[in-house]
Design goal:
It contains 5 helices and 12 strands. With about 250 residues, it is α/β, with parallel strands linked by helices. The model has no long low-confidence stretch (mean pLDDT about 95). InterPro entries: C-N_Hydrolase, C-N_Hydrolase_sf, UPF0012_CS.
């Protein structure tokens, strides 16, 4: 399966972000992954996000589906979805194309001086997996990467690939945490990790793809960039024979 990681910044203008989907989505990839909040950036810390919220059949998800069909691919991208609390939308990933899924962010970024839960409603505590190209994808969003129990729950549901759109805020140690956590989630679960962030300077960039034994297949820098990697079923199977840690679990 060929996967393209699109490390591009979103703006505060949803129409502009929608318009760029077609420009940034290549032909020939099985999966194209955009960052968290690609439909509309978070804005300044603590900003009201209610005006950015849409339904899952609204303009953004509809355009994701249209571009995916036009390119013959599947697209995963982040948006804000209307919730039962009009003031606090859900931070949602929408996947449209050859596969379809929606994942609502479980772990909200109440850390490093931020309080995402003031402006966002957390999603249900249910791991979301989806089949595509002979592999099972497990969906996570940004801060979720810091929680190994979610990654393990996704793998217990059959995930071979952990896909992590993010807007990983820049700061001291943050790139090191991002890279280390991506590799750790890959190694401990003998799964691919495809983690796609928004670029600097506000965010860290460094979108990364890691194989099931922890080797970095590709990594971006801080600036906008797209990377393409190939994920193979046989690589997952071989890694799990070499390091059968999932089979050896006792807890």
């Amino acid at each position: 399966m060929q996967v393209t990681l699109v490390q591009e910044a979103s703006t505060l203008d949803p129409a502009e972000n929608r318009d760029r989907l077609a420009e940034l989505t290549p032909e020939g990839s099985d999966l194209v992954v955009f960052p968290e909040a690609y439909a509309r950036d978070f804005g300044e810390p603590g900003s009201d996000l209610s005006d950015a919220a849409e339904e899952l059949d609204g303009p953004f998800a509809t355009e994701v589906a249209r571009v995916a069909a036009a390119r013959g691919t599947t697209i995963l991208a982040g948006m804000f979805e209307r919730s039962a609390d009009p003031a606090r939308p859900v931070n949602t990933l929408v996947m449209r194309g050859a596969a379809q899924a929606d994942y609502r962010k479980i772990h909200l970024y109440d850390s490093f001086g931020y309080q995402e839960s003031d402006r966002v409603t957390a999603g249900p505590l249910s791991p979301v997996t989806v089949e595509l190209g002979g592999l099972t994808l497990g969906l996570m969003t940004c801060y979720d990467l810091r929680f190994p129990e979610l990654a393990r729950a996704l793998v217990a549901e059959g995930a071979d690939v952990l896909v992590v759109p993010a807007a990983w805020v820049a700061g001291p140690r943050k790139v090191d945490h991002w890279r280390t956590l991506a590799r750790a989630r890959a190694i401990e679960n003998t799964a691919y990790v495809v983690a796609v962030g928004q670029p600097g300077p506000r965010y860290c960039g460094h979108s990364i793809a890691v194989d099931p034994l922890g080797e970095v297949l590709a990594e971006a820098g801080e600036k906008p960039e797209s990377l393409t990697v190939t994920l193979e079923r046989d690589v997952v199977d071989q890694a799990r024979r070499t390091n059968p840690s999932l089979a050896n679990r006792r807890l």
